């Protein structure tokens, strides 16, 4: 079940709030400019599927996001536990970073944990299939796919370079629960 855990940054062991209703998750995140929607990922996709197959299956939704919101680049991250670089990729996304553009991700299979560090608070968003999250440019965050990744996310960018991260150098992520702890 998609969930939102809200922590004070000084209490990583105990969330102040845990929300599981989509309206509550969306309204809490919206206070910080973070979009959270539930779309229909109706075509079954198996983690590990190729980028081409995922883009072909979700062409209508991708075109809608690109046309209505002005994104210019799309790619797919599709990982299962057989991926040879899973530990390396996990470590990279787990390092707190920012992007100079919105982070827009549509989960079409599996799940992953986005954690946003906003002011003194930490918002851990457990995203699952059907979830569309949009994190504003400049928000410090990290992402955990777990030790055995099982997810497919479509990523939309408003630049032509695709994924570019600026690492903050903060080691905060290791203090907070990871996907496999939930
Ligand atoms: C869920 S998409 C993979 C992670 C990613 O692109 C990112 O920027 C994590 O913060
Ligand atoms: Fe990111
Ligand atoms: Ni699955």
TrEMBL record:
Say if the entry is tagged with keyword Disulfide bond: no
Coiled-coil parts of chain: none
Q: Which GO terms describe its molecular function?
A: dioxygenase activity
Site (May play a role in transmitting local conformational changes) found at 102
Q: Which parts of the sequence bind Fe(2+)?
A: 97, 99, 103, 141
- How, per the record, is the cofactor bound? Binds 1 nickel ion per monomer. Binds 1 Fe(2+) cation per monomer.
Residues making up the signal peptide according to the UniProt record:
none
**What are the site positions for May play a role in metal incorporation in vivo?**
96
Which key words are in the record? Amino-acid biosynthesis, Dioxygenase, Iron, Metal-binding, Methionine biosynthesis, Nickel, Oxidoreductase
What domain of life does the UniProt record list for this protein's source?
Bacteria
Query: What InterPro entries does UniProt report for this protein, alphabetically?
Result: ARD, ARD_bac, RmlC-like_jellyroll, RmlC_Cupin_sf
**Xref: HAMAP family:** Salvage_MtnD
Q: How does it assemble?
A: Monomer.
Question: What is the protein name given in its UniProt record?
Answer: Acireductone dioxygenase
Organism, as annotated:
Pseudomonas folii
- Record lineage: Bacteria, Pseudomonadati, Pseudomonadota, Gammaproteobacteria, Pseudomonadales
């Amino acid at each position: 079940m998609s969930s939102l855990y809200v922590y004070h940054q000084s209490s990583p062991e105990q969330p102040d709030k845990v929300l599981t209703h989509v309206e509550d998750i969306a309204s809490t995140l919206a206070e910080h400019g973070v979009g959270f929607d539930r779309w229909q990922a109706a075509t079954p996709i198996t983690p590990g599927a190729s980028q081409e197959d995922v883009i072909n299956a979700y062409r209508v939704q991708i075109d809608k996001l690109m046309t209505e919101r002005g994104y210019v680049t799309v790619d797919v991250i599709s990982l299962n536990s057989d991926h040879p670089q899973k530990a390396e990729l996990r470590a990279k996304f787990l390092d707190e970073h920012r992007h100079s553009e919105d982070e827009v991700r549509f989960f079409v299979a599996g799940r992953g944990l986005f954690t946003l560090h906003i002011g003194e608070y930490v918002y851990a968003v457990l995203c699952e299939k059907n979830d569309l999250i949009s994190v504003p440019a400049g928000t410090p965050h990290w992402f955990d796919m777990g030790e055995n990744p099982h997810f497919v996310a479509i990523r939309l960018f408003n630049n032509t370079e695709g994924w570019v991260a600026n690492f903050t150098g903060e080691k905060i992520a290791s203090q907070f629960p990871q996907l496999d702890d939930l």
